[in-house]
Amino acid sequence: PGSVSAAFQEYLQHLGLQDFPCGLGSWNKSCLNARRSPRAEPAGPEEAVPPGEETPEVLLELLRDRHSPWALPPDCSPQDRLLREVAVLAPELLRGSRVFQAVRSLRILDKGVEEVDEGLLRFQQLEELVLSANHISRVTSAHLPRTLKVLELCCNAVGDLQDLCARPPPELQHLGLGYNWLCGPSQEKHLTADFWPNLVSLDLSYNSLTDLLGLASQLSTLQNLHILVLQGNPLALIPTYRGFLVDSLPKLSILDDIRIRPDEKQQFHGLARQPELIRSEARVVVSIGEMKGLPDPKAFQQLEAGSEGPVITYSYCVTYEF
């Protein structure tokens, strides 16, 4: 599917919310008249079930028993299980467009999605949107529900944040943009409190950000930021990288998945006021301790003087990719 909406329709088909033992059918048609609520008390033994129908308890057991052919795989999400059980207890709540009101978390991973379309606006209660490992290069904020608190776009092809920051969800607390194509210094201006006033966690790992000084200046406006991931960017090679960020962002609790200790804050105190220590270049020293799988030149037999045999030479090339 090319869009998030198309991928969601595939997701619904996978869940089978309208198929036995979920939904409405000959197996539970009398429940429609009863308008059973998800919080209703279980049917008692005195309540007769018409021939050919099953009680909600029996239908739920078909979903929950791991040996059942209708059971979800063990690695499915809690929301998958919840939606299927609601489809048994109150199938009318998930019919037609009502299903969009029941979804609070939407995870579409590695489904070839290229477009975040306006169909997402139908999810008026959506709080978490995870679209990792797709082919998304552009995100238009006008297509994102205003209720979002978590937006994860890891492993895509996002190279520009301008469209995302035009009118971003105001309550967003986590923004995940790791393993994308962001290049500095043009993108730092989009990472301020003007766009993300409630951001608590930010993942920018494994992009191509290079301007540590400019990025720290913009991130310092995020008063609620406690978790920051920048590893994998060229700026992380700067020798004073961690210390400079720890001192520049005093409210940070975790940097690159490592908790910031109180003694670190004391050790790096004042480093943010010495930008001259930030160098725009880094030196990497690589040492070879041992190589396996190559013939030892010393083991070759030396040709005797005057021998007419062919002379065989060996040479090897070692390549490093950074």
UniProtKB/TrEMBL annotation:
Keyword terms of this UniProt record: Leucine-rich repeat, Repeat
Q: Which PROSITE patterns match?
A: LRR
Q: Which domain of life is it from?
A: Eukaryota
Supply one GO CC term from the record. cytoplasm
* Gene3D superfamilies in UniProt: Ribonuclease Inhibitor
Q: Does the keyword Electron transport apply?
A: no
This protein's record includes keyword Transferase: no
Q: Which SUPFAM superfamilies match?
A: L domain-like
Could you tell me which InterPro entries the record lists for this protein? Leu-rich_rpt, LRR_dom_sf
Q: What is this protein called?
A: LRC43 protein
Q: Which organism is it from?
A: Callaeas wilsoni (North Island kokako)
**Gene name linked to the record:** Lrrc43
